[in-house]
Amino acid sequence: MVGHSFGGCAAGLGASGHLIRHLVTVGAQFAYWRDYAPAHRWRMFGKWHVVMPLVTLVCGYFPGKRLGWLEDTPAGVVRDWSTPTSRYEKRPSGRVIHARHRRLPFANVTAKTLAISISDDPYGTIPAIERLLGYFTGGTTTHLRIEPKDIGEEEVGHFAFFRSPYQATLWPIALFWLQNGELAPYTPGRRVPRG
Q: Are residues 113 and 184 in the same domain?
């Protein structure tokens, strides 16, 4: 399974998480504002935790498509995303799941997990990736940090990993992990030591 951004978090929330054998996450975190890259933190806080909820309050949903910012998003999802807490179980959806099951289902994922982060991703900072990986306690996790220069690029950011210009440099990393549950020899980047 491959999950980008919140998609990597969703892999740990699904009821069938125990069926995943190999998991690759890319920039996966749940957007705690203190984890945003310092150079972008306040602008991102304003955008995601002030503007987005206010527009949603006025419209009853977030009209992202009309604004050229994401897709249209239900109010409940916006409320969950914009809640500025450091722990998932303190968010509205996390409280519901925790109350229903007495624990979050992340530990059910026993997969070999590769978390890929890109150094110029303002969301997927090392603290943000590690915060999410801390929930995946049922399997083994590896955090691979890639700098754009490691693959001969100037920038990659949060959204570009899955775009076709990176099919020869980034996609093989994920494919090898999905097939073998380990990094290929000479994989670009560096492993982040797990605390």
A: yes
In terms of domains, do 53 and 9 share one? no
| Amino acid (one-letter) located at 140 | T
Range of the domain at 66: 37-84
> What is the per-residue pLDDT across 111-160, written as a single tens digit (0 to 9) for each?
999 999 999 999 999 999 999 999 999 999 999 999 999 999 999 999 99
The gap between the terminal CA atoms of the chain, to the nearest Å, is 25
The Cα 121–Cα 75 span in angstroms is 26
Looking at the fold, whether 108 and 27 belong to one and the same domain comes out as: yes
What one-character-per-residue DSSP string does 42-99 give? HHHHHIIIIIHHHHHHHHSEEEHHHHTSSSEEEHHHHHHHH---SSGGGSHHHHHHHH
